[in-house]
Inverse folding.
């Protein structure tokens, strides 16, 4: 896993910057609290992050809990009826984004390592769980 992170560090750094840019993290949460359908646009960032995460270790199945969160928070299209149950329809979108963003952050954070840290930090252990390596 570490060698793959190191090989793709530039790409991971660029995605991390994008996820944290105004139109990712900041605007997505603003749109949620504002009650704007534009919160649905966050799904594209989530999908981009997950695609990169999958491509790092394509031979590994991703953690079932993670994939459930992603599935429940992506592939959603806005409908006016969603306004009546805003939280039900939009919280999963931000939850999926937050989990994908966290995993990208951990990839960036640990991409410089040459060997697994001991003892294992929580973030590194979370990456191992993401790829069912722990």
């Amino acid at each position: 896993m570490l060698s793959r992170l190191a090989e793709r560090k530039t790409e991971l750094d660029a995605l991390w910057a994008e996820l944290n840019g105004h139109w990712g993290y900041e605007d997505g949460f603003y749109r949620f609290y504002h009650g704007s359908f534009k919160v649905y646009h966050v799904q594209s960032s989530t999908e981009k992050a997950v695609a990169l995460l999958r491509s790092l270790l394509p031979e590994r199945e991703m953690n079932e809990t993670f994939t459930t969160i992603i599935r429940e928070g992506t592939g959603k299209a806005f409908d006016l009826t969603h306004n009546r149950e805003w939280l039900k329809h939009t919280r999963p979108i931000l939850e999926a984004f937050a989990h994908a963003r966290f995993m990208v952050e951990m990839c960036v954070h640990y991409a410089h390592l040459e060997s697994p840290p001991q003892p294992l930090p929580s973030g590194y252990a979370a990456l191992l769980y993401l790829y069912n390596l722990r």
